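Supplementary Methods. Inverse-folding protocol.

Structures were first reduced to a discrete structure-token string of length 206. This string, shown here, constituted the complete conditioning input.
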């Protein structure tokens, strides 16, 4: 796998774009997004199913991705997917850090973590739970809520993160109207949690 990606000098790029963070702790902040292809989790509600098959997305020179990121004024880069963990991301992160860019990762934690990250958002999935080592370094835990059983899943994962990790419950977009009231009630009863909304969808931006 390492040879296929030339030590991280090539990555399966789905898209990269400049936008505003729409979820979690950094909602509303400008950032450059790098979306990598490939995911074997297969959440039924996933809003990025077009990313799942890595082979549909060409390997792109990482240096070209970095050059594009540097052409925008945001001081941070968000690497997302698909599922970016498991790819060799040290090369990407080292180059971005060289230019003093902050590096943010959005991951389910299902793969081996590489790279140097200023912020890790862990969004655990039942189908393939996170690797144990990522819990202690996650800055943010974001659990998607589809139904009431997800509150127990959220608490199970919250027991494993470090004390400074921010805790978020996020209504699944297609079930927003059905679950938002229960999410609000849960947070009111358990104020250690906060609510994350997919603000970019309300704003109709990427």
């Amino acid at each position: 796998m390492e040879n296929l990606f030339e030590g991280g000098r090539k990555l399966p790029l789905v898209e990269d774009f400049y936008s505003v963070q729409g979820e979690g702790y950094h909602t509303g902040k400008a950032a450059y997004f790098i979306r990598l292809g490939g995911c074997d989790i297969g959440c039924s509600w996933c809003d990025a199913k077009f990313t799942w098959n890595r082979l549909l997305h060409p390997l792109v020179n990482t240096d070209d991705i970095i050059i594009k990121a540097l052409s925008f004024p945001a001081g941070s880069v968000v690497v997302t997917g698909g599922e970016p963990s498991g790819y060799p991301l040290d090369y990407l992160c080292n180059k971005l850090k060289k230019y003093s860019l902050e590096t943010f990762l959005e991951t389910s934690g299902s793969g081996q973590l590489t790279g140097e990250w200023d912020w890790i958002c862990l969004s655990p999935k039942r189908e393939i739970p996170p690797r144990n080592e990522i819990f202690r370094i996650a800055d943010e835990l974001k659990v998607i809520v589809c139904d009431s059983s997800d509150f127990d899943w959220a608490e199970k994962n919250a027991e494993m993160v470090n004390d400074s990790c921010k805790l978020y419950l996020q209504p699944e977009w297609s079930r927003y109207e059905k679950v938002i009231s229960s999410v609000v009630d849960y947070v009111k009863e358990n104020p250690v949690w906060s609510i994350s909304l997919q603000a970019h969808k309300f704003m109709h931006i990427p």
